[in-house]
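Sequence only, no structure available. Ideas?
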Amino acid sequence: MALPPPYDPNFKLAFSLGSIAEIENHQDHDESASAAVVAVDLISSARFALKLDSVYTEYSAKYLVDNAGGSHRGRKLTVKDCLEFALNKGGIPKAEDWPRLGSVIKPPSSYKPDLVSMKGQVIEPKTMEEACDLLVHQPVGAKLHVFMPHIELQQDGIYCGTSGEPASYVGLRDAIIIGAENIQGKSIATVKVWYKKKFIFLKVAMSRWFQLYSPDDTQKGIEPTHYLVDFCVPRLSIN
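Reply:
I predicted one. Tokens follow.
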């Protein structure tokens, strides 16, 4: 693989030709599982920050996958779906009280796990600035536009996607913004991304934009956008 260009703090907007046909064909990506993993991580972090849990406590992502879809079995879940279920449906169990993701074991219908009660609402910041304001108090959920080979090759640097060179657009992946800092005069987010069934950590250029064009007229391109989008945060009630 050719190494993508280094991070340029003065670069603003990339225009790229690429195919988006492969977005749905990544066998290593389960959208519902990804959403559930990120949702429970956000919940665990929020509860620990608010001292609702005395230690960081892992909650069951598999329980959300099994139950958050309600009567719409097979529907792809989002992080927001999972958070709203946890906060509005009486809570969720700890990870130890339900099978792990990937397990083929199904609890008997008579089994009722102990649910940790949770109440609150899901906040959806509309801008990067609003998301950064909330980041002062807790991690913020987001989605990251992912390009190959950049996601593989920029893990030790600053992920800024394509600068116009050939690239494959993978799609949006669920992520959590855990911090922000100033590097060379630009805001850089520290993000953990659920990618290939595990979390990877990236530095992401928050001010960088891109626009993706289809090489033919059969596919719709992507309008100019930041790499981090679709923010959400669980605002928990402490009462």
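The first strand starts at residue 13 and ends at 17.
Hope that gets you unstuck.
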